């Protein structure tokens, strides 16, 4: 059996592929720690790397936190963790006999990432897929998140071991897909959409990052990477909430300096409003 199916085999599944499987993916759901009360779990995914998934995850957590709800971030991108750097976290995660404590940002957003456990931030994580997947699962079962309204999961790109483990082991309430303007992206987004629907995970929204840049002189929007296709992609997949995030040097500087909590912009407000409505209507 391939490593990609190890997450299933650990739960007693012997099929070579999840496609056509008649076993309910929810049957593998793991229970979070008894200390935790987590109302909504939102996965932030992308079909490919480098589209700004961690940026969108961080900004959404900040926006939700600003509204008075409690948010936290589970960094599931084990081999390429960037969430601690974006939030400017330098201290390491601590634990007790009960479990691991997330590190809190300046505004009280809880974060758990493998980089908060490594001695040096630059140490590579050279682990095989099943070990990485089990680490992510432990971030759900062993971390003392506490009372959380929204737990955002920053997923690694693609449709491999970790996204499969997250969808099977954690009760994800919905996903937000992050993409970029290139025409090739339509195919890549479709892969992410199909995986989510195969796992019975609702698709809540679509964010197009690097959508445009605004000229500082004439204020005209310039499509650096070509014309946007987000509307047609959203319509094709019946996704009703879309956001466009521009190329903005201030956002990049905020990430580099670990000051994402100070960002100023309304680009993702509609996405945050949509998430609030989901919480308030249930």
Shape: globular
Overall average residue pLDDT? 89
- The number of distinct structural domains comes to 1
Low-confidence stretches: 1-7
> Order of strands in the sheet with the most strands?
5-6-2-7-1-8-9-12
Major sheet: size, sense and barrel closure? 8 strands, mixed
CATH architectural name:
3-Layer(aba) Sandwich
Order of helices and strands: HEHEHEEEEHEHEHEEEHEHH
Number of strands: 12
Which percent band covers the strand fraction? Answer: 15-25%
Class by alpha and beta content: alpha/beta
Task: Provide an overview of this structure.
By secondary structure, this protein is of the alpha/beta class. It has one domain (29-277): 3-Layer(aba) Sandwich (Rossmann fold). It is 30% helix and 18% strand. The protein has 9 helices and 12 strands. The strands form 3 sheets. The chain has an 8-stranded mixed sheet, sandwiched between helices. Helix 6 links the parallel strand 8 and strand 9. Helix 4 (129-141) packs parallel to helix 5 (161-169). The longest helix has 14 residues, at 53-66. The chain is globular, with a radius of gyration of 18 Å. The chain starts with 5 loop residues before the first helix and ends with a helix. Residues 1-7 have low confidence and may be disordered.
């Amino acid at each position: 059996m391939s490593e990609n199916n190890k997450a299933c085999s650990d739960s007693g599944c012997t099929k070579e592929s999840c496609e056509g499987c008649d076993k309910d993916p929810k049957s593998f759901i793991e229970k979070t720690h008894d200390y935790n009360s987590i109302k909504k779990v939102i996965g932030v995914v992308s079909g490919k790397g480098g589209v700004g998934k961690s940026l969108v995850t961080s900004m959404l957590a900040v926006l939700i936190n600003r509204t008075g709800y409690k948010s936290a971030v589970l960094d599931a991108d084990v081999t390429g963790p960037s969430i601690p750097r974006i939030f400017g976290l330098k201290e390491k995660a601590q634990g007790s006999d009960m479990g691991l404590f997330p590190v809190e940002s300046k505004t009280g957003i809880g974060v758990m990432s493998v980089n908060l456990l490594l001695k040096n931030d630059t140490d590579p994580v050279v682990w095989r897929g099943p070990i990485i997947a089990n680490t992510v699962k432990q971030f759900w079962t062993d971390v003392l998140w506490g009372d959380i309204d929204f737990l955002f999961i920053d997923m690694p790109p693609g449709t491999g071991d970790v996204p499969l483990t997250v969808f099977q082991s954690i009760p994800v309430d919905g996903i937000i897909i992050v993409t970029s303007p290139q025409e090739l992206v339509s195919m890549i987004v479709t892969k992410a959409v199909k995986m989510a629907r195969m796992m019975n995970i609702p698709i809540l929204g679509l964010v197009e990052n690097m959508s445009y840049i605004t000229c500082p002189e004439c204020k005209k929007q310039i499509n650096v990477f070509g014309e946007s296709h987000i509307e047609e992609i959203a319509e094709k997949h019946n996704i009703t909430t879309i956001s466009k995030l521009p190329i903005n040097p201030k956002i990049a500087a905020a990430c580099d300096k670990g000051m994402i909590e100070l960002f100023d912009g309304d680009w993702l407000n509609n996405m945050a409003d949509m998430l609030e409505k989901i919480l308030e209507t249930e």
